Each structure stands twice: as structure tokens, then as C-alpha cells.
Amino acid sequence: MEKLIQPKKLFYTSCLALIVTAMTFAIRAKIVTMWGSDFQLSGEQLGLIAGTAFWGFTLAQIIGGPLIDLVGMRKILMLAFIGHLLGVVVTIFAASFWTLFLGTLLIGIANGSVEAACNPLVATIYSNQKTKMLNRFHMWFPGGNVIGGLIAYFMIDSLQLSWQALMGVLLVPAIIYGVMFFSQKFPQTERAASGVSYKDMLKACVGPLFIFMVLCMLLTASTELGTTQWIEALLKQVGVSAILVFVFINFIMAIGRLFAGPVVHRLNPAGMLLFSAVFAALGLFWLSRANGYEAFAAAAVFAVGVCYFWPTMLGFVSEYIPQTGALGLNIMGGAGMLSVAIILPFMGSWYDANKAEALQQGADQVAAELLAGRETMMTVAILPVILIVAFTFLFIKFRKKPKVALTPGEELELSKA
């Protein structure tokens, strides 16, 4: 008897795979300094190890995107499953810089493969609710960060267990999502099922509207992930725990994505992006001046802004430029992760320069670090300000245009916009 496609089961399994992906980010953030002590690694070496997770993520999306329609989602998810298992095991038994580098790279490739397959999968099984369901799916990235962060705090800070034991926790949900995925039947991607040729998909991916969205993705991802990856340094001296602010931001992001449906209905994807840019800019400006528990209020504004960025960018492309197919979604995701890998060292150099300048002007260490974090956030705030201008244009142009219905051989009016 032929298996039936079960959309809900596929969706829930995709969410579990994304939770594993997010947990790797949170757990690595907790234990990377422990690697420095155990393996006598410099800050530069630790940065190279952490950075390879983003490069691996980008590599998997850029390579996996064109392959989705050729080999199918199942094989890409098999690569993700194997990558997670091997990456965790190699990391647990690492004995040097290079084995830690390899383990982190494998996990990065696995994480990128999850996004490469699951974004088009969700867009296909919920073709009439793409932005809403992509937001629901992506709520589990911040959700997984919260889960991973709390597990890390409990195992390392409370129980004083080893970082190897913490890494081992990832094997449990990874094995579960692997078993669940490979027992299910997968649909064709929406692009393939609709009869749009591979050539037309490639052509759509070099259209002006798509290129505009890719450029915007560089800024949205940098605003969100660049800030949160550096939050420990940026908020080091504001008087509250930076890691708790990080958990708070991710909690709000998860809730926001869960209830994205009514926002989509009222604003449409272009309106959501403009709304997000405004709140992200306001949140960063406020964070750059906040003290004590006021930082949580500022972080809440920032979280409301960035929570819709990533999934709504994917939703907009899937709804308004659907001929780009799985490749389009993965170019967007790859561009987002690539931008984070690029901006992190820039943020580090801005922070170092601001701190050095403050020390030269007579500030003590604490005051210099506080000022450096604030000035760096002010610099990063330029990115959502640029996005406000870009998304205002997008909102004016698309507020009255319907989503594009993908039919065989049909030309997309919006791809010519």
C-alpha cells in the first residue's frame, strides 16, 4: 500500500529538526570558551571554529538549493541527519583545533541542509499560507535557542557536567527527527509539481526583484543574528545578565512567530517587513542607551522587530516570486548566513576600536566596555534604518498587488517589477 503524504507530521518533524539546529547555536555559545581552556586555543582560533558553522550553513544552502528539485527533499534531510550525528560525535571526541573545526563544520552543513529542505517543504505543503506557516516553522529557531540555552545552563552551571555530556544531548532529538522523516512520504516541490522548468527557475533568480530581496536579506540577517551573537559583549556592563537578555529576546521572537497569522492578514508580507525594520531600529537605539532592567524593555522592542525578518523574507519570495522555487529560498537563506559570517568580525573591530578610543580618553575598563557596546549598537542600527527606506518602497509597490498564483507556463508579472 502506497504511503500518503501527511502534511502535519512533516511539518512537526521539520520543527523538531529546526530545534536541533537552533540548539547547536545555543550550546556552542555556552561551551566555546571551555574549548579555549581545554585545548589551549586563542580567541582567534575559537572565532575560526565558531565561524565555520556559518560558512558550513551557507555552503549547504547554496549547494543544496539547486539539488532539492533534482534529488528530492528526503536525500538532503538524510545528509542533515548524518551531518548532525557525525558532527556531534567528532566534537565529543575532539582532541585538537582541527577536530573541533571539522565537527563544527559538519554540524553547520547539517544545519544548512535542514533549512535547505524544510523551507521549500513547508512552502509546498502549505502553499496557501506560506508566510504564516514559515513564521510558525521559524518560531522554533528562537524556541530552540531558549531550550538549548536553558539545558546548557542547567547541565553546566547547576550540575557541573562536562561539555561533552552537553553535546551528547543533541543526539536524542537528532535521532528522533531522522527516524520520523525517513518513515514519511515527501511531496514534489511546488515548482516541480507546477511544471515550471529548471531554466525558468534560474531565470527568476536573477530578476531585479529577487536580487533586491537578496540584498535586503543581507541587512535583515545581520541586524538580527549579528546583534544576538555579540550580545554578551554589547551588554556586558549594562547591569543585567546578557545571556538572560538573549533568552528573553528569543522567547519573544518565538511567541511573535507563533502568532504571525493575524499580523500577516493585516499587513501583508511587505507591510510586516516595514513594521519589523521600524521596531528593530527603535530597539537597537534604545538598547544602546539602556541601563539595568530597562535593557529588557529595549530588548523586547528589538525582538518584536527582528522576529519576523527571516521567515517573512522567505515568505515574500515564495508568495510573490514563486518561480524561484527551492533555489530562491536557499539563496535567500545562504545570503542571510553569509552576511552574519561577514559582519561578526566587523562588529568585533568596531567594538575594539570604540573601546580603545574610550580608554585613550581616560575611561576605566568598565566604562570603556559600556561605551564600546553602545557605540557598536548605534553603528549596527544604521542597517534597519536603510531597511526602513527599502521596505517603504516595497510596501508602496506591493500593498495592493495579490500574491502570484503559480501555474504551468505562466509569466510572473511581479518578476518584471
How would you sum up this structure, described in words?
Residues 10-399 form the Major facilitator superfamily (MFS) profile domain. Belongs to the major facilitator superfamily. InterPro entries: MFS (IPR011701), MFS_dom (IPR020846), MFS_trans_sf (IPR036259), MFS_Transporter (IPR051788). Keywords: Membrane, Transmembrane, Transmembrane helix, Transport. This protein is an all-alpha fold and 417 residues long. It folds into two domains: 7-194, Growth Hormone, Chain: A, CATH 1.20.1250.20; 196-403, Growth Hormone, Chain: A (Up-down Bundle), CATH 1.20.1250. The protein has 19 helices and no strands. The chain has helices at residues 7-39, 43-71, 73-92, 97-125, 130-138, 140-158, 163-168, 171-182, 190-193, 198-204, 208-229, 231-234, 242-258, 260-287, 294-306, 309-320, 325-360, 365-380, 382-398. Residues 404-417 have low confidence and may be disordered.
